[in-house]
Amino acid sequence: MICKNCPVSVECLEYAMAHDEQYGIWGGYTERERRRLKRIRRKMGRK
Predict the structure, then answer these.
(1) Is 34 within 8 Å of 16 (Cβ atoms)?
(2) Whole-number Å distance between alpha carbons of 37 and 7
(3) Of 15, 29, 33, 45, whose CA is between 20 and 30 Å from 23?
(4) Whole-model pTM above 0.85?
């Protein structure tokens, strides 16, 4: 996995989540994984 050793993968994922990026791999997560993570975060009261 390319993102595994990336020093900014967390920041990359947070950027994608904050800007509703719909395409591509961001922070090591696919579009589907980010949607799932977003639903989980909403249930937990996080953005």
Answers:
(1) yes
(2) 21
(3) 45
(4) no
Return all residues near 4 (Cβ < 8 A) that are at least 6 apart: 28
Structure tokens at 43: 């249930």
pLDDT in tens, 1-47: 678 899 999 999 999 999 999 999 999 999 999 999 999 999 998 65
Instruction: Say if CB 30 and CB 37 are below 8 A apart.
Output: no
Where do the structural domains in the chain lie, given as residue ranges?
Answer: 2-44
Amino acid, res. 13: L
Instruction: Give the residue from 4, 3, 27, 6 showing the smallest Cα distance to 18.
Output: 27
